[in-house]
Amino acid sequence: MATPHIKAERGDFAETILMPGDPLRAKYIADTFLADVRQVNAVRNMLGFTGSYKGRPVSVMGHGMGIPSVSIYAKELITEFEVKNLIRVGSCGAVRDDVNLMDLVIGLGASTESKVNRTRFMGHDLAAIADFELTRNAVAAANKLGVPVKVGNLFSADLFYTPESELFELLKRYGIIGVEMEAAGLYGVAAEYGARALTICTVSDHITRGELLSADERQTGFDQMMEVALESVLLDA
């Protein structure tokens, strides 16, 4: 049954979905990595597809930018389309000295400046954490492929252009492995509605050092991340 944001029917989505921010990335994933692909959503051009990877049913759909956007799509996918596993595949910035461009990071947890999880948790602090099995599978897939990976706490920011530049030194002191804009919201929605979630990111820029990947490097990093994400799906029982 269609929702205001997803025009599809139950059964159109697989139990596991990969979610990049950019809907054109979703199309790229479907065209490049999946077999027997069919498009299942185009509302607001938030493209969604279902296909298979090495025989395993997998869906892919964009989630937009920021916690409000990912929260809408994640909630509807879980409650209306019976999606059980949501894996965000995206990019992040680094602040720690030992995290470098092209590193793969996995968000075991996600801190945030957003109030969304306090709102859903009656004003209390919710520990926004990834599913353990999905995390373990992603680490195992990275190890199998020989891809170095760091696992730890992300920071999901509300503002891409924050006026609080001193924030980054605080994040560095607390060991944050990556700064992005969605994981804490995704984890909160998954906890509320009984699904499993994970965030995997490629480090595309180093905030405190002012370093950036080139367009070609971003594509290489994205493809490497996708191999890890898809191989991790195969490991999931």
Beta-strand proportion: 25-35%
Shape, per Cα inertia axes: globular
CATH topology: Rossmann fold
- State the fourth-level CATH superfamily: Nucleoside phosphorylase domain
Q: What would CATH call the class?
A: Alpha Beta
Number of domains: 1
Tally of helical runs:
7
Give the helices and strands as they follow along the chain: EHEEEHEEHHEHEHEEH
Q: Largest sheet, if any?
A: 10 strands, mixed
Q: What is the mean pLDDT?
A: 97
The separation of the N and C termini measures: 28 Å
Total count of strands: 10
Category from helices, strands and their pairing: alpha/beta
* Percent helix range: 25-40%
What value does the Rg take, in angstroms? 17 Å
Low-confidence stretches: none
CATH architecture: 3-Layer(aba) Sandwich
Tell me about this structure.
The structure is a single chain. This protein has helices spanning 23-33, 67-81, 116-120, 132-145, 167-173, 183-193, 215-235; strands at 16-19, 35-41, 48-53, 56-61, 85-94, 104-112, 149-156, 178-180, 196-206, 211-212. With 237 residues, the protein is an alpha/beta fold. The protein has one domain (16-230): Rossmann fold. Strands 1, 2, 3, 4, 5, 6, 7, 8, 9 and 10 form a 10-stranded mixed sheet that branches. β9 (196-206) and β10 form a beta hairpin. α4 packs across α7. The two termini are 28 Å apart.
